[in-house]
């Protein structure tokens, strides 16, 4: 019976040592991983800030493009109102050119 008690005591001692070693290993791994996680977090925040800046830039360029588009459209409308015959002539010439490019008028 004494040998069973010794085996049980030895098993508890070995298990206790293994648990203590595991805790130390986990603590060491945590300490080593902490700076890497901080660097990763910092990099992720930087990437998000960069993307936010790019989104703002794209948004402002889009607004600028829409404003220029509106100005060009109004300018074109004013030209058509002021020069209706010239506009029709340009449209006819453009239609003829497109027809020639795509074979609309085949010579036989």
Structure explained in plain terms:
The protein has 108 residues and is mostly helical. It has a domain at 2-74. It has 2 helices and no strands. The longest helix is centred in the middle third of the chain and has 81 residues, at 2-82. The radius of gyration is 40 Å and the shape is rod-shaped. It starts with a helix and ends in a 7-residue tail after the last helix. The model has no long low-confidence stretch (mean pLDDT 86).
The tally of helices reads 2
Global mean pLDDT:
86
Q: Which value, in Å, is the CA radius of gyration? A: 40 Å
Q: Which percent range describes the beta-strand content?
A: under 5%
- What kind of sheet is the major sheet? none
H/E element sequence: HH
Question: What class do helices, strands and sheet pairing give?
Answer: mainly alpha
Helix percent reads over 70%
Task: List low-pLDDT spans.
Answer: none
Question: What does this entry show, briefly?
Answer:
By secondary structure, the chain is mainly α. It is 92% helix and 0% strand.
Pick out its properties:
mainly alpha; 108 residues; 2 helices
Topology:
Elements: H1 2-82, H2 84-101
């Amino acid at each position: 019976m004494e040998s069973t008690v010794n085996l049980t005591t030895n098993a508890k001692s070995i298990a206790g040592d293994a648990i203590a070693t595991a805790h130390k290993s986990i603590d060491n791994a945590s300490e080593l991983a902490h700076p890497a996680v901080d660097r990763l977090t910092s990099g992720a925040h930087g990437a998000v800030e960069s993307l936010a800046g790019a989104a703002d830039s794209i948004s402002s360029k889009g607004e600028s493009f829409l404003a220029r588009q509106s100005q060009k459209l109004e300018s074109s409308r004013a030209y058509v109102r002021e020069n209706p015959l010239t506009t029709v002539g340009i449209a006819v010439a453009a239609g003829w050119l497109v027809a020639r490019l795509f074979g609309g008028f085949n010579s036989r």
